[in-house]
Amino acid sequence: MKVLVERIARDGKVLNQAILKVDGFMNHQIDPLLMKQIGEEFAQHFSAVKATKILTAETSGIAPALSTGMAMNLPIVFARKHQPITMGGEPLRQSAPSHTHGGEVELIVSNEYLGQDDKVLIIDDFLSTAKTLKALVALVEASGATLVGIGAVIEKSFEGGRAALGNLKVPVHSLAVIERFDGERIIFKEDKVEAL
Amino acid sequence: MKVLVERIARDGKVLNQAILKVDGFMNHQIDPLLMKQIGEEFAQHFSAVKATKILTAETSGIAPALSTGMAMNLPIVFARKHQPITMGGEPLRQSAPSHTHGGEVELIVSNEYLGQDDKVLIIDDFLSTAKTLKALVALVEASGATLVGIGAVIEKSFEGGRAALGNLKVPVHSLAVIERFDGERIIFKEDKVEAL
Questions:
Q1: Containing structural domain, residue B84
Q2: B19 part of contact set with chain A, CB < 8 Å
Q3: Beta-carbon separation of B32 and A59 below 8 A
Q4: Where residue A181 sits, what CATH number does that domain have?
Q5: pTM to 2 decimals?
Q6: Does B69 reach chain A within 8 Å, measured CB to CB?
Q7: Per-residue model confidence as pLDDT tens digits over A113-148
Q8: What CA–CA distance (Å, rounded) separates B154 from B126?
Q9: Fewer CB atoms < 10 Å away: N or C end of chain A?
């Protein structure tokens, strides 16, 4: 996604070999037009998978997931990190390590909103080590729903997340793929990458 | 906002006198069409305040703020509850009690994205006791930016938040105003409420 790659190249900051700071347009401040385009791009790419629901994890997944859900007219469920008092019953839970905060976080989804009739498209901000995405995949499996695709806004391919996801037999699509950091320079893969 | 009031009346659940569960369409699962309409309604209402930026708090404020930002083509900043490692420097901080989790939370905004040139429209999911909104107002003041309006999706007028906000001399607008709960019934104020 050319406009995204250009934006990352211009405004992204390499903090260290694991962390890319994109909080000027994605993760703290959000560029509304870019985020709209991100949703439209996912909607177009995943139009054939016949999803019935989008799943993401709070906090930074919400914006791209909502934008995608708006473009596809599908409900969005965001896994929560803490169980609010409004969530009763026995929700589904999965642990995942936090990339930007350190430590473990728990991802929690109410089984009111994810079940065996759902065909789920997972959308998140990063595909890095894929630990959050794997927790989301596990939530989908635990709910009895069917996973139909995974979309990440930015993939850092050198962290091996795509391989770590294993053979899920669903399309995994990233809108911008970073092959490596060369000091403070961001080296992108030629164009988008896709795997089935 | 008729469609919102009808949705709350249909799908909202009164858990106790302080808590309304709306996680089927707003706070855990999001209805994309309703959320789009919420953004458009805020955009229309606040078109005259000449905002340059939308401010909200994670997590549940992100969806209505993003939708509003998309409708107004304005960047959205969401205050974070924890300082991620991508946020350097000395960010602005304010404490606020959590309504649905208990305890205190800190709201943190980088001064990279909020400063004296900004005219800020605050958007959040609830106007209840207004403690989160007051923390957001304090962040705006601390940044040197100008507050130009406050929008809440749902106001529970019986919790006194509007009075607690004090005389801010900006429009405070809610899309659905709940006057009280009568057991499990939700009693709405006749129509929208507005104060300048």
A1: 2-195
A2: yes
A3: no
A4: 3.40.50.2020
A5: 0.94
A6: yes
A7: 999 999 999 999 999 999 999 999 999 999 999 999
A8: 5
A9: C
